[in-house]
């Protein structure tokens, strides 16, 4: 495995979020992390990307502690789409996407054709080519999210960590983006890790699903093997049924509804 977490303890100001966490990211596969708000998904991703130093344990990238590498070297191997990012004031779409090429820039090296090609390709893949001259501040939420994804794609790293890449996207753009992740994975053998909140999309796209709760990994594996009503109830506290997704034959999570029953009750003739 190129990327793994060994006995990690992560936290902020002495407050632990995850303790003794072990995780191996399967090479060349698409891993999806799911779990309730505040369970530590983004914290884990930040640690895997070297942005957060663990208080114990280590993240191992290509056989070495990730903190043993210079930041730029990590950025040539691994790209992160953070959950929230703030664009520099007054920057255009093309300039922001071009920043994805910084890790590849060397002292005295000019912008190359390879850099240009990577930027053009990333913008086309995310459908933001027509926005290239626009100021990032003036874009809609979904347009802006696709520009950030383009920046990570332009980085052209063999490992990509995407924290809720589908946020702000309409359903068609969500599917388009997940299909793009799958394509990068299948065609270029990229190792992809995405945090998603949509469990049904997670089950559809994940080769490897990781379910987290309160900072710990509670289940992982093929979604078909691990997703049960018991697991979802345990992780999210949500009673549900699991049925077969008729389109992909992966698990489809149907939350139980009290409203449905109540509505039926109301339709009953009132007896006095
Ligand atoms: N910079 C920070 N300083 C202090 N506490 C933080 C910081 N970032 C996150 N936390 C806390 O750490 C816990 C885990 O947060 P994290 O962002 O990892 O959750 P998450 O699983 O990504 O949630 P979400 O689904 O809402 O994005 C939360 O209680 C959060 O308030
Ligand atoms: Mg998060």
UniProtKB/TrEMBL annotation:
In this chain the ABC transporter domain maps to 3-239
Membrane topology of this protein: Peripheral membrane protein
Q: Does the keyword Ligase apply?
A: no
> Which PROSITE patterns would you find in this protein's record?
ABC_TRANSPORTER_1 (PS00211), ABC_TRANSPORTER_2 (PS50893)
Query: Known InterPro entries for this protein?
Result: AAA+_ATPase, ABC_transporter-like_ATP-bd, ABC_transporter-like_CS, P-loop_NTPase, Siderophore_ABC-ATPase
Q: Where is the composition biased (Basic and acidic residues)?
A: 262-272
Q: Name the keywords, alphabetized.
A: ATP-binding, Cell membrane, Ion transport, Iron, Iron transport, Membrane, Nucleotide-binding, Transport
Subcellular location as annotated = Cell membrane
A Pfam match is ABC_tran
- Name any one GO molecular function: ATP binding
- Map out region (Disordered) in residue numbers: 251-272
The UniProt record lists the keyword ATP-binding: yes
Protein name as annotated: ABC transporter ATP-binding protein
Q: Which organism is it from?
A: Nonomuraea ferruginea
């Amino acid at each position: 495995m190129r990327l793994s977490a060994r006995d990690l303890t992560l936290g902020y100001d002495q407050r632990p979020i995850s303790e003794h966490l072990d995780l191996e990211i399967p090479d060349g596969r698409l891993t999806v992390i799911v779990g309730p708000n505040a369970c530590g998904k983004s914290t884990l991703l930040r640690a895997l990307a070297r942005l957060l130093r663990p208080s114990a344990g280590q993240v191992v990238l290509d056989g070495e502690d990730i903190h043993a590498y210079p930041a730029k070297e990590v950025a040539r191997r691994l790209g992160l789409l953070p959950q929230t990012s703030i664009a520099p004031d007054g920057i255009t779409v093309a300039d922001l996407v071009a920043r994805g090429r910084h890790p590849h820039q060397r002292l005295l090296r000019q912008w190359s054709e390879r850099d240009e090609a990577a930027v053009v390709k990333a913008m086309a893949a995310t459908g933001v080519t027509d926005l290239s001259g626009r100021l990032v501040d003036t874009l809609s939420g979904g347009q802006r999210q696709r520009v950030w994804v383009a920046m990570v794609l332009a980085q052209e790293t063999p490992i990509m960590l995407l924290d809720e890449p589908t946020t702000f996207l309409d359903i068609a753009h969500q599917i388009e983006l997940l299909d793009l992740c799958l394509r990068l994975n299948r065609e270029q053998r990229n190792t992809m890790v995405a945090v998603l909140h949509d469990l049904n999309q997670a089950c559809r796209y994940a080769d490897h699903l990781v379910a987290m709760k309160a900072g710990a990994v509670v289940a992982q594996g093929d979604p078909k093997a691990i997703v049960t009503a018991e697991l979802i109830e345990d992780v999210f506290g949500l009673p549900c049924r699991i049925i077969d997704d008729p389109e992909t034959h992966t698990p489809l999570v149907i939350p139980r509804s009290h409203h449905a029953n109540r509505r039926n009750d109301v339709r009953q003739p009132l007896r006095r």
